[in-house]
């Protein structure tokens, strides 16, 4: 099922996945564009729910819908755990 | 027009408005529930765009749609400026 956290998230895998996100969300989760959110230190459940919403289309954003479309539940969990693990600015 | 920042936002007014948000987003913008986002230090343009999306219905969330419905553009700008001004954890 979408959004269910089957196994413990893999922060290292999330870090590798996050390279594709850094153009907007920055190399350390502090957004480089003012209309993108800072993700560093954000709540893991919230991040996971938003990525799942972009993946399913429940939440719409041109860029994020495209980025989240191919992600698996495990990849969403890894990304959420990775960004949650980063120090907020 | 919705989302247009007519005058400089009023952080003090935003702080007063934010009392209604603290049940989920915490007294200092650090969420008290895991499925709500931390708002402290978040990008002002992003916060304003999300509140506007909840206000117009472009973004859906039961609680946030209800909270954002009555907000004016000026109140949205004040809330965004207030939360942006808070230190991220």
UniProtKB/TrEMBL annotation, chains A, B:
Transmembrane regions listed in the UniProt entry: none
Keyword DNA-binding: no
Alphabetized UniProt keyword annotations: Electron transport, Heme, Iron, Metal-binding, Transport
InterPro entries reported for this sequence: Cyt_c-like_dom, Cyt_c-like_dom_sf, Cytochrome_c_Oxidase_Subunit
Top-rank taxon: Bacteria
Keyword Nucleus: no
Secretion signal, residue range per the UniProt entry: none
GO molecular function: electron transfer activity; heme binding; metal ion binding
Domain (Cytochrome c) ranges: 9-87
Protein name from the UniProt record: C-type cytochrome
Species name: Lichenicoccus roseus
Lineage: Bacteria, Pseudomonadati, Pseudomonadota, Alphaproteobacteria, Acetobacterales
